[in-house]
Design a protein that fits this description.
Number of helices: 7
Number of strands: 5
Structural class: alpha+beta
Number of domains: 2
Strand order of the largest sheet: 1-2-3-5-4
Radius of gyration: 31 Å
Helix content: 40-55%
């Protein structure tokens, strides 16, 4: 294990260890990847840890992994999982004999954990990540819509301004008051106006010209 004396050796070991260990969370590998990753971690820590330092360093590593698993199974917010990920990085970097070695080991852990996603291309995926992702499409048939349907039906409707528009005001349409705006034009109170367009919950109105008054009348 003399190769672990060199930063490059620790980099490779932690890279592979984190890659295999996290891959076990993402794919169904029957525990094989977990055993390989754990073995590499044991190889690294057994070389650098002392009797006094080993308990709490190992606790950081195992505790961080447990936090990641708990977050994926119960909370699915990613916050606790991120904390666990940081703890695992520190657990790998702290036993390193130098600052450069520790930085390389931390970088290797990040790269290896990200590289574990590649196993999803080759092996059946677990639902761990699926719980952290939003799969429901925010569509109208599921009750989500960026444009209020009732507001959209107001296009072309006529009403009477209840307040002056400068350029924001209130218009009464079909016995209901709506907050609306004009296209930069001021309108006085008590003026007939119609809905020109609707963008989300933003209602744009304009005054009714004399030609419009000769047309059909809408309910107020």
């Amino acid at each position: 294990m003399t190769f672990l004396q060199y930063p490059a050796g620790g980099f490779i070991v932690i890279l592979l260890a984190s890659c295999f260990l996290f891959a076990e969370l993402f794919v169904k590998a029957k525990g094989i990847l977990a055993v390989m990753g754990s073995g590499l971690f044991i190889l690294y820590f057994s070389y650098y840890l002392t009797d006094q330092a080993s308990p709490w360093i190992v606790l950081l590593l195992v505790g961080g992994l447990v936090l990641i698993i708990i977050d994926g199974k119960l909370f699915t917010t990613g916050v606790i999982g991120a904390l666990g990920f940081i703890l695992m990085i520190f657990a790998c970097a702290l036993p390193a004999p130098s600052l450069l070695y520790g930085m390389l080991v931390g970088i290797a852990f990040i790269i290896g954990s990200c590289g574990s996603f590649l196993f999803r291309k080759w092996l059946p995926a677990r639902d761990y990540l699926d719980k952290l992702m939003l799969h429901d499409r925010l569509s109208a048939d599921k009750g989500y819509n960026s444009i209020n349907v009732s507001y959209r039906e107001l296009v072309g409707r006529e009403g009477v301004t209840q307040t002056p528009f400068h350029p924001v005001g209130t218009i009464r349409i079909n016995s209901k008051n709506y907050s609306a705006v004009t296209d930069g034009v001021f309108i006085e109170k008590g003026v007939r106006a119609k809905v020109l367009s609707v963008d989300g919950t933003r209602i744009v109105v304009e005054t009714i010209s004399s030609d419009d008054n000769n047309g059909h009348d809408h309910s107020l």
